[in-house]
Amino acid sequence: MVHLTDYLKPAEFKTLKSLELMAKQLVEGMITGQHRSPHKGFSTEFAQHREYVPGDEIRRLDWKVFAKTDRYCIREYEEETNLRAMVLLDASGSMSYGGTGRLTKHEYGIRLAASLSYLLSTQRDSVGLVTFDDEVRAFIPPLSSTRHLRTMLQAMVDSTPGGESDLAGVFLTLVPRIRRRGLLIVISDCFGDVAHITTALSHFRSANHEVLVFHVMDPDEIEFPFRDWTRFESLEKTTHFQLLDPLSFRKAYLQSYETYRQEIVQGCRRNKIDLIPIRTDQPFNEALAAYLSRRHHAR
Amino acid sequence: MIFLNAMLLWGAAAVSIPVLVHLFNKHRYQVRRWGAMHLIEASIKIQKRRMRIENLLLMLVRCLIPLLLAMCLSRPVITGAGALWGNVETSLVLLMDDSYSLEYEGTGGKPFHKAREMAAQMVKDLKHNSDVQIVRLSGGKLYDGPRSNLNRVQKDLAEMEAGFGKAQMVPGFKEVAAMHQAGKLKNMRREVVVLTDFQRVSWPSNELAALQAEVTHLQKQKSEMDWTLIQVGAGEMENLSVESLDYPKLPLAPQQTLRVRATVRNYGSKDRRGLPVSFRVDGKIIPPDKQMDLGAGQQHKAPTEDDPFQHVFDQPGTHIIEVNVDQDSLKADNSHLASVEVWDNVPVLVIDGEPSAASLRGQTDFKGESDFLRIALQPFRELKIPGEKDLFNARIIKTADFDAATIGDARVVIMANVARLDDAQTEALKQYVQQGGGLLIFLGDQVDKDWYNQNLSQGGYLPAPLKDLQDRTRDAVPFVRVAPQASRHPAMEIFTGDAGITARINKWFRLVEQPDNPPYTELARLEGGDFFLVERKVAEGRVVLCTTTCDEEWLQGILEPYYVPLMQQLVMYLASSVSPPRNLNLTQPITAWFPAADVGKEVSITYLRADQITEASVKLADNTGLVEKVKITAQGQRGHVFFGGTQRPGLYVLRDAEGRLQHYVVNVNREESDLQQLDEKERAQVATALGARLVKSVDEYKNLDNKRRFGQEIWKWLLWAVLAFTFVELILQQWMSRNKA
Fold first, then answer.
1. Around Cβ A252, how many Cβ atoms within 10 Å?
2. Distance between CA atoms of A84 and B490, rounded to whole angstroms?
3. B739–A251: do the CB atoms touch at under 8 Å?
4. Do A242 and B43 touch (CB under 8 A)?
5. Any idea which architecture B346-577 has in CATH?
6. Over the stretch B44-53, which tens digit does the pLDDT of each residue have?
7. Residues of chain A neighbouring B51 (CB-CB closer than 8 A)
8. What is the CATH number of domain A4-18+81-298?
9. What is the pLDDT of residues B205-250, one digit of tens each?
10. Nearest Cα to A290, choosing from A127, A112, A102?
């Protein structure tokens, strides 16, 4: 049985709890929770009290309970949490790359996805998971329960990176399957035709989804630090390789990378997609916290 | 291109190192499973062509560095396209034909002067640091080793003179080979230039093979020499030469008449009629001139035998005689010189082995062994003829009185039937002979054969050992005669033909003959083959042995006309021949003897050309001529002068510290007088055989030089190239690394 603690270190838990993920867009449903609903006037059924945590709005304090018990409590309703988030975890062959002494991109992505899922779960948002390479491997619809979270984690662990990637194709197939608008969290190295990928993502945007792309890259792929003659064998096509002197090609490689990166940045910006570049040598919770902080301020 | 250290060219194999390193690296790669293949492929599209060019360039530079370094170490020499390189340091060897044929005063001046100017121009055109050696084809070279002071060489060339003997090509070529073998030609460009008039006698066809062998030998040694033959002289043909002089070779006495004739040859193609022939003594013309007719190519003696040039010397000493036919443009062979000695007193010591009491007192009773000999040597004194003076002054002693002191100033010692000498006497006699004395031995009945063989034969003081005594007194014909003489020996030359020795000998000693390489020289034999007179040179002296007596005991006919001249000739020959020769061949050294007291003093030797000889210059009364100083050195008990600088024909006058003069004459072989030259075809054949170029002027030589391929070492350039490529490699590497970064 896989436990969340297998992927999240205690220190990462502590940091996660101090942050909150705030959806930028309103989701369908009533404004019963922290997310403002576009459908005002609907009443919701009281569900429970919970302890006040820093960051909760003062107006949501139940002053009656405070008068009786001298404790700060927040009133919660059944329909208050209605953010639907889907984590799209890339499990193509290219994600299995990891530099010496570092996690692979896929391992890093699992940890990131788990963190996000946990965070969303603690906010009573429903989270779903899609793993894919050139096709969808697992599709877990969003739900908000601890059991569901564990199911998701199990699916993440079961996803072994391999096969070719076809992000654009997969995204296009997912558009009709994720009907209710929500937050789409893409965790991928985005290898492939960037134009196609951003075009596919734009379809999510057209369906009013908020799209968040964690662009995970290994430092080796960014800096290309190799010196000796190297036979680069494709992680996706086993018969595909290139034998070259990395020193001679480094500059050209870096040029290609920069072009590719700019295409992704431009494509995301054009389609109002949040892009978070992540290096696998950087503690993922820090990157996540930085993003959440940015979103919080943006709100 | 050639390589001086070809073995080091193997180092060029290091060119494979960069390639091998490249291949090694390429096959010793890492394997990396990689995701971002699309980025690599995109960069390959951008970079591959440029990188391939850059890598190839770097590989080329890296390969060139060891290749150039190997070439640099192997010392390559560019032998082609020389004109592209311009002037380079050269080792130039000038073979200068300085024979007297180049002294021909033609319309364009003397050929040697032209050769001198051409050589100087060639030296002037040489690049700084070149070196030059000048080889005289008459023999010898100007410097011990090649000179790089080109200004000095030009000055030396300007001072060079011709007028020497025959040009010797083979020794000249051998000199070049010797210089090459000794490694004295240090520059890579080596030029040998022969400046010659191509006189036929200097370029005989039978020597061409030897010359070719020398050049081929040098080629095999990879000497890389360029040979050039430059013709000087316009091929003049007309020339008269005084080939030789006929004059008495023995010293003369005062008032004795000198008779001189000359052999004159016409080498030209024109008949010469009424050709004036003049005679000079000590620079003074002795009239009248004689005239002779000489057809083309003919050779005659002049004047006629009945009317020779004659002269009577009043004073003793050395005198210079000269016959001159000054009727052409080549002066060097127009006269022939000779040094004649005139003596007024020749002291002679006679050791009489069987003297009479009267003879020891200076009287004649014909009972002493040496009575007839004494009369023969000093007839005027013995016969009391007034107004006449004998040349010889004979002193008679008995054997017991002989010792070193009694020899005194005697020029000749005569042993007349001496039985034996004691050890001290023997030693004194040997010393005397060794130091240049003359010894004349007559045998007789007193002679102890064994003593002679044991004491005198060893060391050559007896020309040949005594074998046995021959006695004809009891034979039907109780004597043998002296065989007719055909000898040209100076002592015997007057006894040729009808003027023979008419002596009849009834007793004589036979000698032990040595058929192969005998150490002695026979002067006369008896009929039957036994020796009559034989001589042998011992150290500085000379010994003549007569196998019979000097009186009528064994020798009949002593009153016949041959006796006096024979005795005088023998004594004069011994007296004169032990003196250093005064008539020398070219390069034969001048030697002179002086008293031991003069050792350390200096003598001067003045050289005068034939045309410089005058009454004054012969006496050194003016400052004509080239003067050299020579020191008298000790040799044995006497002082000795040795002067080897007789490379030019003419008169050499030695003056000692007391101002006394001795005249030496140096004559040359007249082969050079034949001015025939090789024709154009023959010259071309010679040039082809020697692999040489044939030119006629300096301009032609320069043109040839510019076209000719010559070598130049380029290791310095290659070293610079290595450094440059190393720098380029560094820059390229850094540039590429920056690109990579």
1. 23
2. 151
3. yes
4. no
5. 3-Layer(aba) Sandwich (3.40)
6. 877 777 777 8
7. 245, 248-249, 252
8. 3.40.50.410
9. 888 888 888 888 887 776 678 889 998 876 667 888 999 998 887 7
10. A112
